[in-house]
Amino acid sequence: MGKQNLTLLTDFYELTMMQGYYNNKNNEIVIFDVFYRENPSGSGYAICAGLEQVIDYIKELSFVKDDIEYLRSLNIFNEDFLSYLENFQFTGDIYAVPEGTVVFPMEPLVKVIAPIMEAQLIETALLNIINHQSLIATKASRVCYAAAGDPVMEFGLRRAQGPDAGTLGARAAVIGGCIGTSNVLSAKLYDVPALGTHAHSWIMSFDDEISAFRKYAEIYPLNTTLLVDTYDTLRSGVPNAIKVFEELRAAGKMPQRYGIRLDSGDLAYLSKKARKMLDAAGFTDATITASSDLDEYLIDSLKAQGAKINSWGVGTKLITSKDCPSFGGVYKLAAIQKNGIFIPKIKLSENQWKITNPGNKKIIRVYEKESGKVKADLIALADEEFSPENPLLLFDPLATWKKTYLEPNTYTLRELLVPIFLKGKCVYTSPSVMEIRDYCAKEQDSLWDEVRRLINPHIVYVDLSVRLYRMKTDLLDSLAEQTSKSTGK
Amino acid sequence: MGKQNLTLLTDFYELTMMQGYYNNKNNEIVIFDVFYRENPSGSGYAICAGLEQVIDYIKELSFVKDDIEYLRSLNIFNEDFLSYLENFQFTGDIYAVPEGTVVFPMEPLVKVIAPIMEAQLIETALLNIINHQSLIATKASRVCYAAAGDPVMEFGLRRAQGPDAGTLGARAAVIGGCIGTSNVLSAKLYDVPALGTHAHSWIMSFDDEISAFRKYAEIYPLNTTLLVDTYDTLRSGVPNAIKVFEELRAAGKMPQRYGIRLDSGDLAYLSKKARKMLDAAGFTDATITASSDLDEYLIDSLKAQGAKINSWGVGTKLITSKDCPSFGGVYKLAAIQKNGIFIPKIKLSENQWKITNPGNKKIIRVYEKESGKVKADLIALADEEFSPENPLLLFDPLATWKKTYLEPNTYTLRELLVPIFLKGKCVYTSPSVMEIRDYCAKEQDSLWDEVRRLINPHIVYVDLSVRLYRMKTDLLDSLAEQTSKSTGK
């Protein structure tokens, strides 16, 4: 069985607008940017993810007969337009930031250059996919940062917002740093490790706890992790686990990896007690896994209290990004081509920082040469050239008196947007998820530790080039003039 | 294209446990209950949803060749077990509460009676589906309650946690009370209204706002809703919309439904001003739709301030249930059959209220005869009989001195669980989503207004029958004895 065709995964107004453009014979080439305005969970950065699924979606875009019949049945679309849809395919260009890249607010993560009817259709699915996976990858990155090198396993499928949220969410969680997932479908689809051992029901289906432990150790001799909190963690679970480990040791059958899992109670207290009991019995290399309503804040706090946990299973609060369950990516018109030239467009707002950046843009990442750490990002026009052999002016677009000059040869530059589709043809091959995970780890290493702090992190500046800044202020001036004219005020 | 086969949509430990049971030749009939412990968002109730997708999932359960090969590649499953999986199908019984039913904590929403290997496999997908849709249906019910009869449209696809979260979430939102969704795929799949008009980009793609409005009105003469906040709501958007409505009126082409949509700014202030401007021009029946980061609390607050909004588009905060993005449904073993008799099982916890209810159970809803409103729910053993001609004792299972006697013939009773699968065969036909929506509206009407209050609602009691209560306390006593014996304390 294949996947659901997602061509109709769009907002109804995209189709009504498309028909409007069709009837109006208006299908100019436009530029739309996907960007977001605020990092989720108070983070100092986000991790971009979901591009592979965007690529699949664009490649498979096609209104099948059934879709057309459904649209016809709504009695709002005319036959000419429906015929156009029957032959629909994406013919434009798409540029995007590779998955796993560290990104910041206001940067175009995806740039679509296409006839307006095509660019409009794909808005909703693009946002849905990028918003979801970037949200979970960012959350996972924070959770793994708190775990400070301990392995983190994604365990959230049962509480995810539907099958895709579990499966694509696990994919994103691995990109962000998890070592694998309990979700078998995701493990299969994205070739990432499938992880997990047994549940309370395993224990309860036996007459007593130790029989359940013995049987489990017998069947899974390579990795024996025993869940110790079904009846009484310290009085029953841990002593029974130790008894089984002792039996295995006596029989010369010690598992390569073994340990216990705590799933309830106070994890700091229980892990310290359990560690002492295990150590006293000579099981100093037994792993203590914890898995009870964890997130980056609780892991950080448990670590600060010296909890003896060295493996983490994180479920609900990671797979739903519980404290911030949406990523605010938007899709805004940046330019319209007239007579072969892109006319920049801007969307006003009462909030200065919500005003969009016009024109055909690119992102330049500026690294400090000495440390290799990210100094700032620069949003510039696509045809601007920069060289690290020149001095570079950085200034805050909302407070232009905040200026920094970088001396020549003290910094390096990198362009973040790469071509994904050109004239409708895919020109990009997605790396494997585990490769993206490695790349993402390097990306996170390029951040100062201050930017990764879980609470109130240092903010990386995202500046505008001088040319882009001027284009934007000129447009704002002329729009203000136009509005007061049209209302006669 | 069909849907993804979801057979592997399970936690890895379900499969390792299954192999454990297989090797142990232990495949006894067991009973598992799906229930939850706390209503989401501080609600006084929840709406159960997702059953139709559970049914589809169970019907389609089957390990295809590709799945088996994948599992074999993990080098943890033996060939005997893999052959068993190749022939796997669900052979058990499932009882469930119909979709759209009002439910309360601790009640078995789904009851699975099946060989333990089958019951274990389906745990994760059942929870994933029921948790997600019940969460969103409950949220939608609250949002619609706040809207107090105004239509509420589901607009959240772009911020949903992946494609399914958008599509199945929209289904659940309609069950909870929304009149339709912007998500075309969901509208098609579940036969619910597709809704929406146009975006800011439509306006920006024209030389000026009024040309964009005129063209839109020309193309969509039946329902002309104009988005008025692209440039300046009160100085440009509303005056231009009024101008277009005046032109249509002059031409005798007034749309059947028409109005404006506000998508930013202060909705109370803008809607009152816009209402006055529309009324002054004679457009007293123009709809004012609002759609900017809404949820039940903001709608309630806007209503309290006399905002002149009579149609609501609700996105992010509904489709993610932003203030509470997970529904805590769990799946717990309640009994194991030995020699044809169900032996009740219980899961201990340090928290009294987290201890599970053992045995084969049913839910009896008790209505006050006079008002038809829900008085309480009673969890009883499946073979218990109750008649409204007898007096009925209700008591709080955590504070047994809190007792109520209902007089004979002052109450009516209804059993909530209905058979869905019997011996692996589906015996239930799901109603259409719009039928479920109607049923759900009646269900919500059966609640006292005090239970529907958005904040700090009255709590409906969920009591245990005397027999179930005794079974539970007896089990707890014997378990406590057993634990102290096994640890020698």
Automatic annotation (TrEMBL), chains A, B:
Top enzyme class: ligase
EC number: 6.3.4.21
GO BP, sorted A to Z: NAD+ biosynthetic process via the salvage pathway
Domain Nicotinate/nicotinamide phosphoribosyltransferase stretches: 152-321
GO molecular function: nicotinamide phosphoribosyltransferase activity; nicotinate phosphoribosyltransferase activity
Domain Nicotinate phosphoribosyltransferase C-terminal residue range list: 360-472
Start and end residues of each Nicotinate phosphoribosyltransferase N-terminal domain: 8-131
Single GO cellular component term: cytosol
Any Pfam family matching the protein: NAPRTase
Cross-referenced InterPro entries: Aldolase_TIM, N/Namide_PRibTrfase, NAPRTase_C, NAPRTase_N, Nic_PRibTrfase-Fam, Nic_PRibTrfase_pncB, Nicotinate_pribotase-like_C
Classification via CDD domains: NAPRTase_A (cd01570)
Gene3D superfamilies: Aldolase class I (3.20.20.70), nicotinate phosphoribosyltransferase (3.20.140.10)
Keywords on record: Glycosyltransferase, Ligase, Phosphoprotein, Pyridine nucleotide biosynthesis, Transferase
Pathway: Cofactor biosynthesis; NAD(+) biosynthesis; nicotinate D-ribonucleotide from nicotinate: step 1/1
Keyword Transferase: yes
Function: Catalyzes the first step in the biosynthesis of NAD from nicotinic acid, the ATP-dependent synthesis of beta-nicotinate D-ribonucleotide from nicotinate and 5-phospho-D-ribose 1-phosphate.
Similarity section: Belongs to the NAPRTase family.
UniProt name for this protein: Nicotinate phosphoribosyltransferase
